[in-house]
């Protein structure tokens, strides 16, 4: 058998420059994020818990406090943040140093796949070849998320929120790109199923040593829009169990309020239209906690 | 990915990249010891896997453009997603005297005139990527000391830069 040197033994550069380009991408991203005081992920692992609505309202709440805020919709396949923040149809500015993001009426800078797609009902598709898409799609989507973070002219920001889609793999994807993430808010509900899924995300975030981790219990009760009485929406106590099992603090318990959905559907977060609503108050308090933990 | 010439036990160095336009790619590597050449041929899926990383085998001729991967990979990009910045106008401005031009790019580093034929050709590029493509051509022209971009200059730049489909 011939003695062929292993890859690690061959130290001489081939000139293909692949590694150099990947390193350059990482440098560009890191350089862009030096202007951001705090990158805050709003994640869960579980779908349907209201991450995007929490992100949109939190972004607007932070901006209303006078902070400079950006929001990245990391859900490339099901973008909703742009719509919730009222920037649907906005045009991005093409500059040599980066793409200028859309700006919401509430003052939040936004980047979302929604802004790039021609047809509103078109599923996300990449150019050919279709063959073997399962091999390269994840790679290209991670690359596009890197561009959303690093190729957008965010300017100097106090907070850059990242709305992370369902799946713990998506949290891992973000942590690959932003390994020194400042804060991660893990959105859950009182549902036992949500507790089961979010516990996996807690473990992943802990292993990645995310700076600050906290839970957000969404749909924690139902607010009657007539009398303001809060009743249980779920019979479970998954959020309380998650708090006890993980030892993580719950930074907000946000009651379900149909007006929150209506407001975000219309592109104006509830914290702006009805700041006195219980849900808004919970999110405004959440914003306080986020600000307290900005590095 | 590295290639070793087993005869010489030398690492083969990247020499040339060819993109035939059918989704495949050919990259030529040469042995510095014996001069032997080999071509690595990739099928469309393998080519896509590399380009999905936003990298090019053998390095880039032009710097990576903002959101280049999204713009070159997305199917169904929005026509009016990107407004062109003020330093790369597509509208008619100040043609050079005596030059049948429709566009002048006047970013820092000098003026570059686009003839009407070149502008017409550029307008056939999907608007989703047009600004990025125009900037690449303009930067190339400026770097080469070319003050007027014609279709022939675009061909030259495309060949030199390996701009498939641009």
Protein traits:
heterodimer; A: 295 residues; alpha/beta; Rossmann fold; 9-stranded mixed beta sheet; two-stranded antiparallel ribbon; 10 helices; 11 strands; globular; B: 166 residues; alpha+beta; N-terminal domain of TfIIb; Helicase, Ruva Protein, domain 3; 2 domains; 4-stranded antiparallel beta sheet; 3-stranded mixed beta sheet; 8 strands; 30% helix
CATH class of the largest domain in chain B: Mainly Alpha
Query: Which regions of chain A are unreliable across 5 or more consecutive residues at pLDDT < 50?
Result: none
Q: Report the average pLDDT across residues of chain A.
A: 93
Taking the sheet with the most strands of chain A, its summary is: 9 strands, mixed
Give the strand order, joined by hyphens, for the main sheet of chain B.
1-2-3-4
Helix content of chain B: 25-40%
| Spatial shape of chain A | globular
Structural class of the helices, strands and pairings of chain A?
alpha/beta
| CATH hierarchy, class of chain A | Alpha Beta
Give the number of helices of chain A. Answer: 10
Describe the structure concisely for a colleague.
With 295 residues, chain A is α/β, with parallel strands linked by helices.
Architecture overview:
The complex is a heterodimer of chains A (295) and B (166). Chain A has 295 residues and is α/β, with parallel strands linked by helices. Chain A has a single domain, classed as P-loop containing nucleotide triphosphate hydrolases (Rossmann fold, 3-Layer(aba) Sandwich), CATH 3.40.50.300. Chain A contains 10 helices and 11 strands. The N and C termini of chain A lie far apart (57 Å). The mean pLDDT of chain A is 93. Chain B has 166 residues and is an alpha+beta fold. Chain B has 2 domains: 59 residues, Single Sheet (N-terminal domain of TfIIb), CATH 2.20.25; 104 residues, Proto-chlorophyllide reductase 57 kD subunit B (Helicase, Ruva Protein, domain 3, Orthogonal Bundle). Chain B has a 4-stranded antiparallel β-sheet. A 3-stranded mixed β-sheet of chain B has the order 6-7-8. Chain B is globular, with a radius of gyration of 19 Å. About 14% of the residues of chain B have low confidence. Chains A and B meet through helix 1, strand 3 and helix 4 of A and strand 2, helix 1, helix 2, strand 5 and helix 4 of B. Strand 3 of chain A pairs parallel with strand 5 of chain B, so a sheet runs across the interface.
């Amino acid at each position: 058998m011939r003695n062929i040197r292993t890859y690690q033994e061959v130290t001489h550069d081939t000139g293909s420059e692949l590694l150099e380009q990947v390193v350059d991408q990482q440098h560009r991203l890191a350089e862009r994020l030096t202007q951001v005081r705090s990158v805050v992920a709003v994640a869960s692992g579980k779908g349907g818990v209201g991450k995007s609505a929490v992100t949109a309202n939190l972004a607007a709440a932070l901006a209303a406090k006078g902070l400079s805020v950006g929001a990245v919709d990391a859900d490339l396949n099901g973008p909703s943040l742009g719509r919730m923040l009222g920037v649907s149809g906005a045009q991005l500015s093409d500059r040599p140093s980066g793409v200028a993001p859309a700006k919401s009426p509430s003052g939040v800078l936004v980047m979302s796949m929604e802004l790039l797609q021609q047809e509103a009902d078109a599923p996300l598709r990449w150019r050919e070849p279709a063959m073997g898409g399962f091999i390269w799609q994840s790679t290209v989507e991670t690359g596009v998320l890197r561009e959303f973070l690093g190729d957008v002219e965010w300017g100097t920001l106090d907070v850059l929120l990242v709305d992370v889609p369902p799946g713990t793999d998506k949290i891992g994807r973000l942590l690959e790109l932003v390994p020194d993430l400042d804060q991660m808010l893990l959105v859950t509900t009182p549902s036992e199923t949500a507790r089961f899924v979010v516990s996996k995300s807690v473990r992943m975030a802990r292993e990645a040593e995310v700076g600050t981790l906290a839970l957000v219990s969404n749909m924690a009760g139902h607010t009657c829009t007539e009398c303001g009485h809060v009743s249980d929406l779920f019979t479970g106590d998954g959020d309380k169990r998650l708090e006890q099992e993980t030892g993580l603090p719950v930074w907000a318990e946000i009651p379900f309020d149909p007006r929150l959905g209506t407001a975000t559907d219309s592109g104006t977060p509830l914290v702006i239209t009805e700041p006195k609503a219980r849900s808004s108050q919970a999110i405004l308090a959440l914003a306080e906690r986020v600000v307290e933990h900005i590095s | 990915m590295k290639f070793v010439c087993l005869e010489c036990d030398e690492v083969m160095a990247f020499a040339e990249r060819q993109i035939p336009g059918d989704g495949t790619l050919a990259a030529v590597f040469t042995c510095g010891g014996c001069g032997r050449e080999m071509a690595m041929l990739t099928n469309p899926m393998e080519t896509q896997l590399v380009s999905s990383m936003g990298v090019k085998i053998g390095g880039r001729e032009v710097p990576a453009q903002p959101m280049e991967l999204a713009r070159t990979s997305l199917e169904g990009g929005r026509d009016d997603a990107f407004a062109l910045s003020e330093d790369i106008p597509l509208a008619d401005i100040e043609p050079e005297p005596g030059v049948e031009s429709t566009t002048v790019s006047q970013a820092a580093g000098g003026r570059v005139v686009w003839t009407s034929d070149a502008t017409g050709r550029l307008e056939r590029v999907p608007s989703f990527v047009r600004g990025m493509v125009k900037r690449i051509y303009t930067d190339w022209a400026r770097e080469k000391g070319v003050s007027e971009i014609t279709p022939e200059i675009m061909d030259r730049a495309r060949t030199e830069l390996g701009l498939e489909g641009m």
